Each structure stands twice: as C-alpha cells, then as structure tokens.
C-alpha cells in the first residue's frame, strides 16, 4: 500500500514545493516523500498560472509517487478526491471537483492540484489548500472566486489527513475513483465552453456530461456531438 508523509522536507520559504519535489524525485527520493513550505515565491497551477497564499495560511505540499504504472492513469482524479475527503474530515463542508484539478466549496475554489510526472519513473503530486486565508488576502485577478477551509482548522491537520487519504486513493481501483469523482463532479449538467483543444473540436460550447474511463471530460456539444476533452488540452470557462 502507498504511504505518504515520510520523509518530509519543510521550507520556510521556497520558490515552489513542486520544484523542490521534482529535484528530489530526479535524485532518487523514495515514494512517499513530501515537501512542504510555509510560503512560496513562485507557486503555480496548471498552464503556468500563479498560486498565491499568505505565509502560514495554506497547505503547500508536494508528494512523490514512484514508480508509476497503468493503475496510476487516473491519478489526476484520485488526487482531488483525497483533498476533498481531507477537508471534509476536518470541517463541516461539502467539496466538489471542477475538472480536472480544482476543489470547490460552494462554487469557490479552496484547493488546486498540479501533477508533474516523468513516467514511468515518478510523479509529483502538488496541492495548495487555502486553510485560513482571509477573503481580503486573495489576489483580485483570480480566475475563480477563492475561499478557505476555515472553522479553526490548522495547516498541519490538513497535511495529516491528506497524506492518509492520498495513500488510499492512489491505490483505489479505477472503478471506485470514477464513481467517487462522478459524485463530486461540479461540471455535470453545467453549461460550459472551451478553447485550445485542437482538431475539429478546438473550440466549442455545450453541457458537461461526466467523465469517461480515461478521465477525460465529456461534453454534449451544441454541435450535437459528444466530445471528450483531455486534461491539459483545454482552457475551460463556465457559462454563469
């Protein structure tokens, strides 16, 4: 069974926990190694977007998983499920996942996931969870409204819960991952549009129709076709 949390390397300030974890993974650090930081100077999300959080107010963590196999194909779905369960174990809230990597509370982003990998050697699972960030401390240029876990929860509590939940979901059968994700899918039945997918479906609009067995987002497009969009291919924008 996978395990996360040991060894742990903690920084008061670093550019990005994913940067440090990738360096450790390339140098042979064991599976389960985690890198944490109180503050990041160059935190980032998907597509190079900036991740910002006041010092000590967010869980900034990156975990190493190695080696990779076919069973890890749904890791981008398993990781946000672990974050959802970790938060819900500590606070009276309900989490959803906005495909592929944002965790929501009441349609406000509380966490983001960034997975970087060198298959089949290793993957780095990065997570940023807003734990106790005041609303007025969030940047004004965010792509989506942000929120925090709150309820007196502390960063170390979230880390402890996340390590345990991540271990369980990394090893979970694909069918369980897909079923659990479907229950938290924030885009199913929602109007959305996308761009940058390439091919005949490079741009379009439609209604979210769930997730397929490969973890791609299904959309019933306005063109009448059902389209499968792969993570990393698209920039999604919800129709409000």
What does this structure look like?
The protein has 240 residues and is an alpha+beta fold. The protein has 4 helices and 12 strands. A 7-stranded mixed β-sheet has the order 1-2-3-7-6-5-4, sandwiched between helices. Strands 11-10-9-8-12 form a 5-stranded antiparallel β-sheet. The longest helix has 16 residues, at 155-170. It is globular. It starts with 7 loop residues before the first strand and ends with a strand. The model has no long low-confidence stretch (mean pLDDT 89).
In DSSP terms, counting alpha (H) and pi (I) runs of 4 or more, how many helices?
4
User: How many distinct beta strands?
Assistant: 12
Beta strand %: 25-35%
Q: Radius of gyration over alpha carbons?
A: 17 Å
List low-confidence stretches.
none
**Largest sheet, if any?**
7 strands, mixed
Percentage of residues assigned to helices:
10-25%
From the N-terminal CA to the C-terminal CA, the straight-line distance is: 42 Å
The coarse silhouette is: globular
**Overall pLDDT level:** 89
